[in-house]
Amino acid sequence: MAGCERYEELICALAGGDLAPDREAELRAHMAGCEDCRRLYEAVMAASQVLREDMAEPPAALAEGVMARVAAYEAERAEARPVRPVKKLRRWMPLAAAACLAVVIAGAALPRLMGRKGASGAAADAAAPEAAPYVMESDGGEAAARSADMPETVSLTEGMMDAVAEEPAEAEEDFASDEDGALSGAANAEAAPVEPAAGAVGYTLCDPDGNAVAVISDREALDGLLRGEVIAAGPEGFAPMYTLTLDGVRYVLAADGEDGLVWWTEADGTVTRSPAGLDGLQALLD
Amino acid sequence: MTEKEQAGVIRQVLAGDSNAFEALVKAHERSVYNLALRMLGNEQDALDASQEAFFRAYRSLDSFRGDSKFSVWLYRITGNVCLDMLRRAGRRPESSLTVEDDGEELAVPDERGDPQRALERKELRAAVREGLMRLEPPFRQALILRELNGLTYDEIARVTGLEAGTVKSRIFRARRKLAAYLTAGGNFFADGPSNSKTGEKGGGDRGRM
How big is the CA angle at A243 (ends A215 and A77), to the nearest 5 degrees? Predict the structure, then answer.
């Protein structure tokens, strides 16, 4: 009908439920006397209703297929990372496990450990097995040590989640107030236990059998790790860091995406990053 | 799942727990699949497109900033996958249009006692599906996002990268075209037998928008 064009858009919007209510009365009045517009309205409304209701159930193959592709994609990515260190790990990790592997989560203390100098003497006293957080050496080769007022660390082999939850609140505050210093320390000292090497895509965390259990790929997750949060559940809740004692020497292990494993030895209460890398540890163990 | 819960799952996935992604797939597979189904017109393509969309979402999950709803972000990916597929397929909307009418068919409970009405309903649904496939893909996409996915005009603008005004006009034209297709095809029996005027009006431009 001539003159109806101006109504069409409004009618379509009304039928689709997209029209402001104050326009409705005018339109209804027009439609009462205009069959064409009424039919347009009815047809749009019917189509709209069908489109909203005509929903099919997705086949189960959908989610299965997606997750299979995700798994294949992750496997491929894992393969693209160096695998040699992990293989070597398999050779000596059973030994490590036999030598009373202690899983240590350093909790809120960890951020302070990075690239800072502390009181070495106090650290030596405090460095009781399974309870000592570790201080990383800075790039200049100076060994840093934990200070005696560090919040207690949590030592555990199981039930890590509980222990983390029970961490004293003051430790959290400690961390918060210290965050800037600690993080900037991390920035200028590659000594941070889990600071990625330039270009590294992420850290692969390994369980004591040398199997990769998780990949940390972003800054937020990394910070979580530094706060001692369990950021990814591995088998039986393994922590992302391990210590082991062999012949009276303590080793702290963390894995990364570059070498597969970063480790430090502990001597006189001081943890030192080994410049020799995995091969050095291997030689030591041989 | 709330946006907050989703954000938690996303963080979990980004931290390396790729299996956690399944929760996001499960939460959105129905809307994503139906969007793809109405865009592409058949179940096999819809399945392929949905999987591709979710996989792309997984790979670029770290680029999701949370400034739109996660679902809206997913629909954008899904829409792009569908439009790519349609481009590659070289426009053959009539392909397997009828396939999805075989078997399946959701029951329409309230019309069970009225076979005639149920038949009309079924015909109407088939006609809407077919009419939808006759719209140009970008118009189809805008209308589906509005009706099926329930997005606002602004959200559709974000998904499609268009101005809100353009979205509005596309949806209007899509609705009008679809209504014309229904009335012209005789699939729509709103108020008695159609008169000649309506037939003319629809018949002339039955086809693509």
Answer: 15
